[in-house]
Write a structure and sequence with these properties.
There is one protein chain. The protein contains six helices and no strands. The chain has 147 residues and is mostly helical. The chain has one domain (12-129). The model has no long low-confidence stretch (mean pLDDT 86).
């Protein structure tokens, strides 16, 4: 492959990843808002789990924050990784407590893992902070930007 073809493929993959991130982010924001605003389906689900309203509010807040984080360039890798952990909890809950099919959370996990992999460069201290915000003294020696 030529350099131009490689660059074009990389650009298309980056755009596709951003489209997936925005769609998944909006889905998590919507699901989180349903939990936070007390949608009856969500209230019944969390009553069945038996953990009480605190877990519904916590999961809802995490979903909203993670969904928004997926749409912020310097946070998207960390948001995808954190939402992956949340979805693992949903899979375990679906199998062990609620006795529902875990297919949908597994699909979310695969998509979030792919986003985490594509945005893995944003999981380093340099990738987590917008340019110029991290003080030079706090950055690990091997990650300090070259002048």
């Amino acid at each position: 492959m030529t350099t131009l073809a490689t660059r074009r493929t990389s650009r298309v993959a980056n755009i596709a990843t951003w489209v997936v991130q925005v769609v998944v982010g909006l889905m998590f924001v919507g699901g989180g808002m349903a939990k936070l605003f007390g949608d009856p389906t969500m209230v019944d689900l969390f009553d069945e789990i038996g953990a009480g309203d605190w877990l519904r509010y916590f999961v809802g807040a995490c979903e909203v924050a993670g969904g928004i984080g997926l749409m912020i360039p310097w946070l998207c890798g960390l948001a995808a990784a954190a939402l992956s952990a949340l979805v693992v909890g949903a899979i375990v809950t679906n199998v062990a407590v609620v006795d529902e099919n875990p297919a949908l959370p597994i699909v979310y996990l695969v998509v979030l893992a792919a986003i985490t992999w594509r945005r893995r460069d944003r999981l380093t201290p340099r990738g987590l902070m917008p340019r110029g915000l991290m003080p030079r003294g706090l950055m690990p020696r091997g990650l300090m930007p070259r002048r």
